[in-house]
Design a protein that fits this description.
Strand order of the largest sheet: 11-12-14-16-18-17-15-13
Mean pLDDT: 93
Structural class: mainly beta
Oligomer: single chain
Strand content: over 45%
Length: about 325
Amino acid sequence: MKKRIYLAFIVILTSGLVWAQKTVTNTYTGIESIRLSTSSGNGIIKKSSSNTVKVELVYTYDDRDFEPIMEQNGSRLRLKEEFGRGSFSGRSTWTLEVPDGIRLNFNTGSGDLTASTLDIDLRSNLGSGDVEVDNIKGEISVNVGSGSVDIVDAEATVDVNTGSGNIDVSNTTGDIDLNAGSGNIRISGSEASFSVNVGSGDVHARNVILADRSSFNCGSGDAEVSLSKAADFDISVNSGSGDAVLDFGGNAINGDVVMEADERRGRIIAPFDFDKEEEIERGRNVILRKSAKIGSKDVKINVSTGSGVAEIKE
């Protein structure tokens, strides 16, 4: 049975120019997966009040240049923007209301994505654009060429990669894997297994709890981690050419501690005495390594830097 598509035309006058804003709406049942692909359109994902999927597209493109595709094939829904040849101007926003349990794949050349209050498998690829995710359960996978990613109040497996842009994660639990080519990564109030890597930028993780083995690394920049609970799992904090700081936040330091820094250009600071100090040759550099066994936990604690300060705070 064919779905009816409703168009609403709104004429807006701006500086003597006339352009039409058009709206297309449709609903679907029996949907398990959605693939939304846009050229530069934004995606807004909300929770449906029923088991149906509602799609609302608002756009200002000329209909001679633009055709929205909405196709259901069994339990799969394909949403896509198609354009004619040549240049075109305008904008579009796709708003999807979906039930929990949906698998959703969002792809755009240069658009933004927001999603909130859902239990879904969310995967997205953006050439350039920003991503905001709030109160999501399930799986979150984000790849952005240039743009920022903000994740709040999630209970999920989180996998985020950006070429250039900042990543912010707060009040989130699960497995968190964050990678940025250039940009800052900020984490706060989260409990997870962390794998955090930055090529050029800083890592700041505040008031975090380790749920499993974790690492925080940056090539050029500072890596600073503060714990709100004693470390019960292995942790490493490393920087190539910046400071590497692990703050236990008043919690007991307990485990096998190894700290490293370039002998000439780096420093090591700790609130305890070391059991062993040694010099290790690595190519043309000499690395100073200090180690200590504190307490009885079988936990490995590693803090290292190339040309900055490697520091452990109580």
